[in-house]
Amino acid sequence: MPNQKILYVTTELYPYQEDSNIATMVSKMALKMHQGGNDVRVFMPRFGQISERKFQLHEVIRLSGMNIIINDLDQPLIIKVASLPGERLQVYFIDNEEYFKRKQFYIDDDGKPFDDNDERAIFFARGVIETIKKLNWVPDVIHLNGWMASFIPVYLKTFYKNDSYFKDSKIVLSVYNEEDLPLSSSIEEKMKFDNITALDAFKKPSFQQFVIDSMDLVDVVLKGDEFLQDELKDAFDKTATTKSEYIDAVSINNLY
Q1: pTM of the model
Q2: What is the DSSP-derived secondary structure letter of residue 51?
Q3: Are β-strands 73-76 and 67-70 bridged in parallel, bridged antiparallel, or unpaired?
Q4: Closest Cα partner for 208 from 231, 241, 192, 236?
Q5: Distance of alpha carbon 256 from alpha carbon 254, whole angstroms
Q6: Paired strand residues for 172
Q7: pLDDT by residue (tens digit) across 196-214?
Q8: Residue 234: helix, strand or coil by DSSP?
Q9: 249 and 25 in contact (C-beta within 8 Å)?
Q10: Are residues 194 and 157 in contact, defined by beta-carbon separation less than 8 angstroms?
Q11: What is the pLDDT of residue 1?
Q12: How far apart are CA 76 and CA 91, in angstroms?
């Protein structure tokens, strides 16, 4: 079914990250749907390891410039864009000096998770939502990949619940066996600022707990890895959301 508008939101994408199942899978899915005649966009964080010169990233002035308030602080949103090498497929990068300039992903040189990983995820989720609205482009399918992307359905069902912009968009969540790291215990206070309360994930906040919470807030939950581990498997089995077993990238259009 060509001519669908498909938004991929991901924490990783090949070739910007390599040797990662998420990065490879999202790249293959996006290319498959793009080459099949669909209007495909990809959004991801602009982590410090991604070379702007090598991949020819450039800032989109008309999309940059808005501020997102995180924990009562104004954080400027910078949007950069590049084409996937060798393809006319646009990748949008959510950037901010405070959150994404550092070279490491989620842990410092001593192996300790960054204290602001929660704020980075909130900023990323809200940055994607606000930028899509500014593009005036309404996706038919929003396909979420990676723990940061799991904050998007949380925000769409709460902070943006009276906003009809995405009312006809179907949301797919791919669940992967990602590294699970704890998030700051202050995340509840920070999200309360956005009128988000009573999430199960607040009891023991971590990457995985937000993925588990978001399973109940989307239209379809899909296994991103063929076999899910431990708590992810249990949550996948228990959720009342429509479920799909692992599908390879070549067949993803059958799900859409």
Answers
A1: 0.97
A2: -
A3: antiparallel
A4: 231
A5: 6
A6: 143, 220
A7: 998 999 999 999 999 999 9
A8: helix
A9: yes
A10: no
A11: 57
A12: 20
Query: pLDDT for 53-64, tens place per residue?
Result: 999 999 999 998
Amino acid at 150: S
Cα-Cα end-to-end distance for the chain: 8
Separation of alpha carbons 43 and 4, rounded Å? 17
Q: Which amino acid is at 173?
A: L
Q: Which two tokens stand for residue 163?
A: 């906003």
Six token digits for residue 100:
């994404």
**Burial state string for 36-66 with b = 16 or more CB within 10 A and e = fewer than 16:** bebbbbbbbbbbeebeeeebebeebeebeee
Cβ-defined contacts of 109-116 (< 8 Å, 24+): 113/181, 113/182, 113/183, 115/184, 116/184
- H helix intervals, the chain: 21-35, 52-55, 97-100, 117-135, 151-156, 187-192, 207-214, 230-238, 252-255
Among 182, 180, 157, which residue's Cα sits nearest to residue 167?
Answer: 157
Residue 106 CB contacts under 8 Å (≥ 6 apart), including other chains:
113, 114, 117, 179, 181, 207
The residue type of 188 is E
